[in-house]
Automatic annotation (TrEMBL):
SUPFAM superfamilies: Cysteine proteinases
Protein's recorded name: UBP43 hydrolase
InterPro entries, sorted: Papain-like_cys_pep_sf, Ub_carboxyl-term_hydrolase
Region (Disordered): 116-142
Taxonomic lineage of the native organism: Eukaryota, Metazoa, Chordata, Craniata, Vertebrata
GO MF terms, alphabetically ordered: hydrolase activity
Keywords annotated in UniProt: Hydrolase
Length: 321
């Protein structure tokens, strides 16, 4: 009869005990798959208006920190610069923080990885948009008085913050995201008019209609995404809308990992959206070859060899009292 040797080593005195057990048949464990396929859309500064979806084999028991490192290697961007967020067809859902378990990432909505624009060095003048297509915008003031933010609480606002934005149009079941999601680095003391111009400048590549220079009204509303009810809107009447107290709260609640940022939703009236952007929908995303490879690898029934089963059976274990 064949026999199996079982060795037991004391972790304190290192004394080893060996026993031999004869057997006619043996039950072997089957190694389980340790990874799953997860698609991540990369939004990089070097590929403006181009979005690439990559396929990753992420660990089943990993954390978002593991995903951040994988995205950093894939995109050649430092891990501390990567912003991970779930973006649904209706807008931004949530940002992902490093301590979170990875098993829930991407279940509610596709995962996007954003690289922030480079930080401006001290003393460098801020470049303003010079295109004639983005002068003072006109349009109705869409923000109701009940939703206006309070006056700025900061006497001397300074510094710059990262804004993660999605554009939406429609209401209720017809609410839908359109155009590319954006990452802006803005001064805290920026005015509503300048903030609106900077957002329009980022959308210049998809603008179809002309923004006439008459008037200084708000073309859209800006709402903090993912906040608790009631919704918090930034006000065009605020001299410094990014100094709203809710912005500070959003920065404080930003999870660990990646640069702190604020998620905003830019809400367009359907008629204004049609006039300026036409029937544009979400951004066009190109799939890298890794998407097909990971789907094929994880879509197939997991198989293993008899040798792998024996390796798992004979794997050394730590016996606890």
């Amino acid at each position: 009869h064949p026999s199996a040797r079982s060795s037991l080593t004391c972790p304190h005195c290192l004394k080893q005990s060996n026993t031999f057990d004869p057997f006619l048949c043996i039950s072997l464990p089957i190694p389980l798959r340790q990874t799953r396929a997860l698609n991540v859309t990369l939004v990089l500064q070097c590929e403006r208006w181009r979005f690439v979806r990559v396929g990753l084999a992420v660990p089943l028991l990993g954390t978002v920190a593991d995903l951040r490192e994988m995205v950093a290697r894939e995109s050649r961007v430092p891990a501390e610069q990567v912003i991970l967020a779930e973006v649904s067809p209706r807008g931004l859902l949530r940002s992902l923080s490093d301590p979170e378990a990875l098993r829930a990432a991407g279940e509610a909505a596709p995962v996007y990885a954003f690289q922030p624009p480079p930080a401006r060095r001290a003393g460098c003048p801020r470049s303003l948009p010079t295109s004639p297509a983005v002068p003072r915008p006109e349009g109705p003031r869409l923000l109701p008085s009940a939703a206006r933010s309070s006056d700025c609480l900061h006497r001397a606002p300074g510094g710059r913050i990262l804004l993660l934005l999605c554009n939406t149009a429609g209401t209720g079941p017809q609410l839908a995201r359109f155009g590319p999601p954006l990452v802006l680095r803005e001064e805290r003391g920026v005015s509503w008019e300048q903030l609106q111009q900077n957002i329009l400048a980022q959308l210049r590549g998809v603008l179809r209609g002309e923004v006439r220079p008459q008037g200084t009204g708000a073309l859209f509303r800006i709402r903090l995404a993912g906040g608790s009810a009631p919704c918090t809107y930034l006000s065009p009447q605020d001299p410094r809308p990014l100094c709203h107290p809710a912005i500070d709260r959003a920065l404080q609640l930003c999870g660990a990992g990646g640069p702190p940022h604020v998620r905003l939703t830019v809400e367009w009236d359907s008629s204004t959206k049609e006039r300026l952007f036409g029937s544009i929908q979400e951004e066009v995303v190109q799939d890298a070859e890794s998407v097909r490879q990971q789907q094929q690898a994880h879509g197939q029934q997991h198989s293993c060899t008899l040798d792998e089963c024996f390796q798992l059976y004979t794997k050394e274990e730590q016996v606890r009292a």
